[in-house]
Task: inverse folding
């Protein structure tokens, strides 16, 4: 597999092109760091953008939902959706209002969706999605029943085209603005867990290893 996605009219980053990357590794790293994507698609003249959980496996992403999901039904018809993932890494505060910005890592990808019919692949995709949510959780929970597998739709979107866009660091002001007595800089941001809350039926049970590991791995 080639190390970069081909730059085309579809995935080419036009605005702030110097922040663009077509490197597969960089695209995959950004995808693997998230768990919610937004999927854009059109039905006749109406455009929809739907958030959903996902997981990347090799050069595809898996998404799932109820069999009656309008989005999943439309994607099965062969349309090419636009899938985006974004991480907000910081607030960029410049000396001018115009140059305020954000630090971020984002991916935009395109590819046709394939309906997964094979039972074993469906179960594997369900495991991958669960593990993306919380590593180690799959082995701690009840496995899906035949009915649950039957009423769940799994789609695989092969990544045909993709690009990443990344901004990091502080503000870039106009040369003359550096003389102004105005504070500028950036505020790094990161997502972190708060105190865990057991449901009313788990109060007497020990916190599972997957949760302990997750809490220990995240910065305070």
Result:
């Amino acid at each position: 597999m080639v190390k970069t996605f081909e730059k085309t009219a579809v995935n080419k980053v036009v605005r702030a092109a110097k922040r663009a990357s077509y490197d597969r590794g960089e695209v995959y790293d950004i995808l693997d760091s998230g768990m919610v994507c937004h999927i854009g698609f059109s039905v006749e003249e109406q455009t929809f953008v739907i958030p959903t959980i996902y997981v990347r496996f090799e050069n595809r992403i898996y998404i799932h939902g109820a069999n009656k999901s309008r989005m999943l039904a439309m994607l099965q018809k062969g349309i090419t959706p636009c899938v985006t993932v974004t991480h907000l890494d910081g607030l960029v505060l410049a000396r001018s209002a115009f140059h305020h910005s954000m630090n971020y890592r984002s991916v935009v990808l395109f590819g046709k969706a394939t309906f997964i019919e094979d039972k074993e692949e469906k179960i594997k995709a369900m495991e991958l999605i669960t593990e993306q949510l919380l590593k180690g959780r799959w082995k701690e929970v009840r496995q899906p029943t035949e009915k649950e597998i039957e009423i769940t739709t799994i789609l695989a979107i092969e990544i045909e085209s993709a690009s990443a866009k990344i901004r990091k660091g502080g503000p870039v002001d106009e040369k003359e603005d550096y003389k102004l007595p105005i504070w500028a800089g950036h505020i790094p941001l990161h997502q972190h867990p708060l105190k865990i809350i057991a449901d009313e039926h788990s109060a007497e049970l020990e916190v599972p290893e997957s949760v302990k590991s997750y809490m220990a791995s995240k910065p305070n």
Remarks:
- The chain has one domain: 17-193.
